[in-house]
Amino acid sequence: QVQLVESGGGLVQPGGPLKLSCAASGSIFSIETTGWYRQAPGKQHELVAGIRSGGSINYADSVKGRFTISRDNAKNTVYLQMNSLKPEDTAVYYCNAEIKTIARVTIPCWGQGTQVTVSS
Fold first, then answer.
1. CA-to-CA distance for 27 and 14, rounded, in angstroms?
2. What is the DSSP track for 15-45?
3. Beta-strand (E) ranges in 26-113?
4. Contact assessment for residue 9 and residue 116, using Cβ atoms and an 8 Å cutoff
5. What pLDDT digit, counting tens, does each position of 10-37 carry?
6. Residue 21's pLDDT is what?
């Protein structure tokens, strides 16, 4: 089976940076669309940023200009560089990927989530 492991979450002061990583492992043939989602207390699950295998990227309006998504196909890893963090960015961040397995079956996979807390 395919697994996604997230890392990089933690406590950061407002205005500071933080970088999240999500590494996929298992019976992977290729990774198609992948991205980051988040859910804050009392708020709905939302897409933060997504990137396709061809390189096209989209961001939520609330993070545009502050966050950067990237991927390293050789490492089967997607990153989210977060800058100028705000308290409202506090949430559990999840990575997601559409993964084509060695069996050539495309499946959606989710990471376990990593907590990001922006507070002074």
1. 39
2. T--EEEEEEEESSEEEEEEEEEEEE-TTS--
3. 28-39, 46-51, 57-59, 67-72, 77-82, 91-101, 106-110
4. yes
5. 999 999 999 999 999 999 999 999 999 9
6. 98
